Backbone:
């Protein structure tokens, strides 16, 4: 276990370092001088030089990267070159929005996906399976941002059932918060559930054909127990993997969903930063994404051993 | 040496596909969509950029504009036809990019043990990386365009191709005819080209069929965000982005392009599913 944690830790650090370094160098290769963008009206050489000195843009890329990394380790991600606000403060308001959206969406996607996938596998060849399969195919094929647009059009603008955009923090007003986040969660969650449903169905079908399920049936266990305790539990391994792999899709989906519903989250912050060439913010976004990616993958590994005790974290038994 | 393989013969495959009504319907829809897309410059009743400020927001069913017009009086039907052309172009370009890079890497990972660790690790890393961040970065560096959107989407699809090709290569490598070829003294590259690649075609084909609709959806998202095809070029994604501002006034301009995307993607996905079922040697419907 200790050896595993050690390997895992240095791999994570390497991933973080690589992701950050690539983006750091990549955005500095972009055409366009950020000093020019910052200067505004006064574009005299003196003003530009002052700006470059202030933001460290006059130093070599490597010095800039070293400074960024050292500051990041101490929890200082710099200030936005656009708004002058500290990046950590921006993350502090944007991240809770996205984390709430993502957690609720994953929860909805898992409940819907695992439920429908199990039903489809158990009711194989019946109308319930066709319905579940059909819905999953549609879920894979429909552009979800478009569903969001249509939902806003018919559920917000025409009928006023839900707010069309905006966000209220949960601590300020929990009811208003949920009211604002319902539609985005449903749009993002149903999109992810299609993949989970198909995976659950196929691994459930595998599990239902195994000897231990037949044995469980033969010894007279109730169907509910056979499905829940024997078949589903064993197919959950695959499902957990898929949920973990959906992280990228989740982040991409959150960006688009936030854009449509005007949620002031991490995704909107990302898009704005890229369009405005806000270097410190872009760097922070990548750092946070990479950290989230590493953290969630680690969680997925730990979940494996919870679901299937035979799997020891770290590979070898004990 | 002529070795017969595990590929189901073409006649049986076609018979199986023809027996499945979903496969037939989706194939017909796909063929029609491709025809419309290819011929759209000649089929479209209006030039997609042609504005008519006297006739903005005419509803569907108006004589001369069966699907109505948008905020600039442009014909929605013509724009959807050319938008489908753009969607299909991006879909095919993206998947071609992914195949050109992904298939050799997958073959190498499955066949040469030494390569496996590095390539598979890389694929895992890429798989979880949010494709949108990649696309955003590429659009920022090289500018937003159809080609750059296709490249970003294609790169995002490489890990999926690597995984599928790798696992099929592992399977094929353990079969007798490859071992026989090794005993014969054939070189690795020859075996890969002559035995492994042709037999892996079916899984690559299935993966490509499901990757195209994903790419089509990806293009729509990128163009919607302003990172893909640029106006005034018609794209279903940019149509939705403009329609968003006028959705309450002209709901059809927001609904119809989305339906077109869904129809295209659905036809590909249904056909991909049927193809996989037909290729499954067990003949099961999974």
Residues:
């Amino acid at each position: 276990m200790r050896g595993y944690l050690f390997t895992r830790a240095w791999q994570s650090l390497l991933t973080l370092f690589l992701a950050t370094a690539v983006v750091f160098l990549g955005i500095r290769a972009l055409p366009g001088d950020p000093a020019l963008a910052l200067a505004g009206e006064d574009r005299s050489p003196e003003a530009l030089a002052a700006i470059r000195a202030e933001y460290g843009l006059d130093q070599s890329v490597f010095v800039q990267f070293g400074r960024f990394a050292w500051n990041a380790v101490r929890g200082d991600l710099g200030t936005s070159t656009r708004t002058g606000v500290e990046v950590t403060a921006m993350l502090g308001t944007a991240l809770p929005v996205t984390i709430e959206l993502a957690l609720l969406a994953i929860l909805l996607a898992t409940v819907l996906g695992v439920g429908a996938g199990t039903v489809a596998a158990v009711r194989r060849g019946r109308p319930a399976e066709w319905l579940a399969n059909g819905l999953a195919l549609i879920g894979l094929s429909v552009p979800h941002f478009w569903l969001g647009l249509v939902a806003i059009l018919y559920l917000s603008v025409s009928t006023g059932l839900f707010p069309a955009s905006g966000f209220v923090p949960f601590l300020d007003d929990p009811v208003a918060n949920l009211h604002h986040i319902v539609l985005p969660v449903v749009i993002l969650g149903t999109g992810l559930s299609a993949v989970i449903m198909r995976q659950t169905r196929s691994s459930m079908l595998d599990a239902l054909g195994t000897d231990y399920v037949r044995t469980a049936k033969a010894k007279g266990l109730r169907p509910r127990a056979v499905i829940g305790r024997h078949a589903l539990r064993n197919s959950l391994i695959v499902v957990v993997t898929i949920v973990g792999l959906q992280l990228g899709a989740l982040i991409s989906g959150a960006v688009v969903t936030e854009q449509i519903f005007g949620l002031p989250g991490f995704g909107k912050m990302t898009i704005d930063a890229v369009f405005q060439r806000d270097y410190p913010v872009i760097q922070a976004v990548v750092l946070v994404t990479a950290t989230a990616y590493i953290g969630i993958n680690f969680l997925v590994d730990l979940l494996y051993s919870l679901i299937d005790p035979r799997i020891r974290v770290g590979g070898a038994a004990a | 040496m002529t070795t017969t393989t595990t590929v189901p013969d073409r006649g049986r495959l076609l018979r199986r596909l023809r027996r499945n009504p979903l496969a037939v319907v989706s194939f017909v829809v796909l063929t029609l969509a491709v025809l419309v897309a290819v011929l759209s410059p000649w089929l479209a009743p209006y030039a997609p950029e042609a504005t008519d400020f006297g006739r903005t927001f005419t509803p569907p069913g108006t004589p001369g504009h069966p699907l109505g017009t948008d905020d600039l009086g442009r014909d929605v039907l013509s724009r959807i036809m050319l938008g489908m052309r753009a969607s299909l172009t991006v879909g095919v370009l993206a998947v071609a990019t992914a195949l050109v890079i992904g298939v050799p890497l997958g073959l190498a990972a499955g066949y040469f043990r030494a390569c496996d660790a590095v390539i598979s690790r890389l694929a895992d890393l890429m798989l979880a990386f949010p494709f949108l961040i990649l696309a955003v970065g590429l659009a920022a560096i090289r500018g937003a365009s159809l080609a750059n959107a296709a490249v970003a989407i294609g790169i995002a699809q490489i890990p999926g191709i690597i995984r599928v090709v790798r696992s099929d290569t592992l399977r094929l490598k353990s079969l007798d005819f490859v071992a026989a070829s090794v005993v014969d003294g054939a070189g690795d590259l020859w075996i890969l080209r002559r035995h492994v690649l042709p037999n892996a075609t079916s899984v690559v084909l299935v993966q490509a069929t499901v990757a195209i609709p994903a790419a089509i959806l990806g293009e729509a998202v990128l163009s919607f965000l302003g990172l893909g095809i640029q106006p005034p070029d018609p794209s279903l994604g940019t149509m939705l982005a403009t329609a968003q501002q006028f959705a309450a006034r002209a709901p059809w301009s927001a609904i119809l392009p989305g339906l077109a995307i869904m129809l295209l993607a659905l036809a590909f996905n249904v056909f991909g599913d049927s193809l996989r079922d037909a290729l499954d040697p067990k003949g099961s419907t999974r």
About this structure: The domain at 95-307 of chain A is CATH 1.10.3720.10 (MetI-like fold). The first helix of chain A runs from residue 2 to 28.
